Amino acid sequence: MTHPLLAIDNLSIAFRQQGETQTVVHNLSLEVAVGETLALVGESGSGKSISALSVPAAAPYPAGQLPQR
């Protein structure tokens, strides 16, 4: 059995704005195997960019696991 190149498990991303917490990504889970291609597709403001930025842990996230492989 091969291990995924990237595995995200229940990732949530939130920001504080004007004293309130705004969760912009809710419980994202995915796996990408070696040789696979992933496309993040969605409406404007749906969290695609911030989800992609979180892969190398460049963005803060309050919940979930992002193990390094």
TrEMBL record:
Xref: InterPro entries: ABC_Ni/Peptide_Import (IPR050388), ABC_transporter-like_ATP-bd (IPR003439), P-loop_NTPase (IPR027417)
Keyword terms: ATP-binding, Cell inner membrane, Cell membrane, Membrane, Nucleotide-binding, Translocase, Transport
One Gene Ontology CC term in the entry: membrane
Main location, first listed in the record: membrane
Location(s), subcellular: Membrane
Pfam families attached to this UniProt entry: ABC_tran
One Gene Ontology term of the molecular function aspect: ATP hydrolysis activity
UniProt KW Translocase keyword: yes
Domain ABC transporter positions: 25-51
Family listed: Belongs to the ABC transporter superfamily.
PANTHER family per record: ATPASE AAA-TYPE CORE DOMAIN-CONTAINING PROTEIN, OLIGOPEPTIDE TRANSPORT ATP-BINDING PROTEIN APPD
Protein name per UniProt: ABC transporter ATP-binding protein
